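I'll show one example:
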Amino acid sequence: MDKLPIHNEVVVARFRPRTRWNLKYLSLLCLCGVYVAAQWSRSISRTVFVDDESASLPAHAREALYKCKMLSVKPGPPDDFYQRSQSDRFVKGTPPTLLRNASVWTGDSAGYELRGVDILLDKGIIKFVGQADQGSLYGYSNLVTVDVGGSWVTPGIVDMHSHLGVDSAPSLAGASDTNSLKGPILPWLRSLDGLNTHDDAYRLSISGGVTTANVLPGSANAIGGQAFVIKLRPTAERSPSSMLLEPPYTINDTRVDPSLPPRWRQMKHACGENPGRVYGNTRMDTFWAFRQAYDEARKIKEKQDDYCAKVVTGQWEGLGDFPQDLRLEALVDVLRGRVKVHTHCYEAVDLDDFVRLTNEFQFPLAAFHHAHEAYLVPETLKRAYGNTPAIAMFATNARYKREAYRGSEFAPRILAENGIDVVMKSDHPVLNSRYLLYEAQQAHYYGLSPDLALSSITSVPARVLGLDHRIGFIREGYDADIVIWDSHPLAIGATPIQVWIDGISQLHSPYVSAKPSTLQSAPSTPNFDKEAAAAVKYDGLPPLSTASPTTNVIVFTNVGSVSSKIGTEIQQVFSASDAGRGVAIVKAGELLCYGAHAACVNHITSNEVEWSDLDGGSISPALVSYGSPLGLEEIHGEKSTRDGVVLDPLAHQIPDVLEGDEVIRAVDGLLFATRDALLAYRAGVTSAVTAPASKGLVAGLSTVFSTGAAHGLQAGAVVEDVAALHVSVSHRWSGSPSVSTQVTALRNLLLHSNEGTPFNLAAKGEIPLVVEAENADIIATLLKLKAEVDTHTGSSIRLTISGAAEAHILSKELAAANVGVIVSPSRPFPEEWQSRRILPGPPLTYDSAISTLLDHGVTVGIGILEPWSARSTRFDIAWAALESDGKISEAQALALASTNLEKLLGASAQGDLVVTRGGTILDFEAKVVGIISPRRGLFEWI
C-alpha cells in the first residue's frame, strides 16, 4: 500500500481520568483534529480519545480513515483544473498550432457559432479562441499555422456507445472480448482488460472525426461490467492504459493525493431480449437478478457506513478491516452516485422496469441506450431517480428485432421537444463509428435542430460521461481535440480535412474532395411535423401504405430539373434556368410534358387537375435496392416473420424432395408490405432485387418486386419472377468447406448441369451469375473460372461480383473480363480478414472503391446489408458522388442504384419516377412527395 501524506496521520492523546491536561499538547491535538475534520466530506462532531494509556491506532487505521473520508466525495475535476498549463495527456515535443480564420461550432448554448476566429492549441489544450494578435501569440517561436480558410471547425466527436478495441476489426476469434458468458451479473469485469490496441478501426474512426469513445462491454449480461473512456490516437507507449481518459484512481487499487476528488466510473447494464436470450431468462428473471445484486451491494454499503460511523467516533476496538467485496465494489459505487450507468433497454416495459429499479435502490442513471421506444414514454423517463437519463440512439437503424420494431426516425426530435437529452451513437461495429456524424445528420434531416444534432455527438455525450470539463466543447482550457470539415458538418458527406487529438494532428497528407459552396451551410431540412405526430399517435407504427393513388392530371410547378432513362443511361433532360423554374405534367402514371409552362399548357385539358409547387424539386428515375433480405423478412430476430435460410449443399444433407437441378426461388417466399419495404418506397426506392437468404454456397434465384405493393397478387407486385442466379464463395467459419472446395463445386455445377437448368443457363450467359465474394484472391480465382467456363461453353458468363470489399485491387482485370461489381455496403469496413484491404476514400485515400472501379470502366452498383437501410439509398449514392472530387456526376450517381443494378442483376428497366420537393433526390434538403408509375398507370402521393 502506498504511503499517505503525513498530514493525514492522526495524533491520539493518551490520558487518565481526572489528570490535568498539558495545554500545549491539547492545542496541538485540537489543531490536528480540526485539520482531519476539514479533509473529510462528512462532519465529525467530536474527537474521541482512547481511554487507555497503552492504546494506539490499529495498523489499518490510516487506510480506513482514507476510505471513509472518500465514501461520499462526488467525482469531478479538481478546483484548479482550469488553471492547468498543460494536459495530463500532453506529448512532449508536440508543436503549438494556430488555426486561423475558422468558422467554429463551439458547443456552447450561449453562442454556438463563431466566424472568422483563431484557435491556439498548445500543450494538449486549447489556449485561445478569438482574434489572435501579437500579444496572444507572444513567446511561440515554433508555431505551426494552419489557414482554415473559413472552413467549419468543431470539437472532436464523442462516441458514447462503442465496442472499439473489444470487438475488433478485422473480426478474429483471438480478439473477441465484447461479452462474457459467465453469468448475468458481472459488475467486476472491465472492458479495459480486453482492449485491443491493434484494432484497424481506430484509424478509420479518427478519419471520421471521432476522437473519444466510451468502450462498453456487450449486452449479453444484465450487468456486463465496467466501461472505459479512451482517446483514439495511438501513443508511444502502445498500451491500452495509455489510451485512457481520466481513468478511475482505483484501477488495480492505485492511490493518489486524497485531496483530489474521485473520477467518474462507467458501467454497462442491459435489460430485455439480449440477456434473456443468452441466459434463457424472462424479463422477470433478469430484473430479479438486478434487484438481488443491488440488494447485496446495498448491504455492503450499509456495513461500510456503519463501519465509518465508528471510525469517525474513534471506536477502533474490535473494528477490523473496512468491509468490502472486490466483486461488488463498483456496484456499491453506483449506489453512492459515483458511476455513470449506461443501460441497454429498448421497450417501454424495460424502461419502466429500470426506472423503478433506480428508485428502489436510489441511484442515478446516465443514459438509456438503444431505447427505441423512449420517445413514446418521456414522462416515464422523467421519473428516474435523481435525474432524467439521456437517450443514446441510432437515427434510422430499427426493426431488426421485436424490441426495435417501433423505432422511429423522429425519436430524436420528439425526445428533444420533451426536454430530454439526445445522444447519437454508433454501437461500433454495429455501425461503423467513422460515420457517427451521419447519425447526427439524419437526426437533423428528420427534425432535430442543427445545434442539438451536433451537440448529440459532442457536448451532450461529454456531459453524460462526466467529462464535459475537458471535451465536447471548443473553449479555452479544454482538450485540444479539434476537427476541420470540408463542408458544414451537417451536410451529407461532410469529411474531415484534419483531426487533432490532444493537439496532435492525426491525418498524414489527407485527401480533400472539392464540395459545392451550397454545402458550406447547414441544410434546410424538410417539414416532417405530420409524420412525427403520427409516430406518437399510432404508438410507433403509423400507417405507411400509400392510400392516395390518382389518375388525375397533376401539374407540378417550380420544377428544378427532370432526369430520365434513355436506353440504359440516365440523362438530365431538363434543368431550370436562373430566370425561372419549369413545369411538369403527369397523367395516369405518364410524364406527359416537362419544361417551360408555355410548351406544356396544351396538355392541361381536363377539369380534374391537381397543382403542386415543388419548390425547386425534381423528377428522376426511381431507385432499386439490392443486397439485403428486403421482402423476405419483417423482423430479422423473429423466425416467424422471415422466409428462413436456404440449406447449404456442402454442409447439409439435402432432402430427397429437393434433390436435382432445381434451385430455390426467392419469389416463393416473398413478404409484402413490410415496414422496411414501405419506408423504402416512400424514399424513392420502388423496386428491390432479393435473393434467397443463405449461409452457404448456393443461395438461389433472385426476384424483382415492388416495394410499395400490398400483397403478391396485386398488379405489378412481382415485377420479375426470376432475375439472376446467386452463389457465395468465402472464408466462413471453422469446419466449413474450404474455398477450394466451394470453387470446385461451383465449377462442376457450371460445367455439368443439365440443359436448361439454372446453372446451365448461367454458364451460357442467359441469366447473370452473381457471386458474393469479398476477398481479392477469391475474386481472381472467379475470373479464372469464368475464362475456363467461357472456353468450355463458347459463351460468356454474365458474372457480377457482390460485396466486393477488395475488388478495387482488380479493377483493371475486372474491366477486361467485362465483370461488373456491386459494392455492398457502399462505404466499406474491414469487418473480416477477407475484407481487410479496403479502399477507405477521403480523407485517407483520394479514390474510393467506387470511383476506382468506375475509372477503369467497370459497371458498378451499390448494395446494402440490412433492410432498414434501403430507405437511405439516395443518400448513399449522393455520398459516393460527393467524395469523388467531381468524378461521379449526378447521372452516374443515380445509375449506381438504378440502371447499373438492373444490368448487373438481370432486371428489366423499371419505368417508375420519383418526385421530390425542395431539391433533387440526392439533396438532403429534399423530400420525396410522389411516385409516377407507368407500370401501374397511376401517380401516388407519399
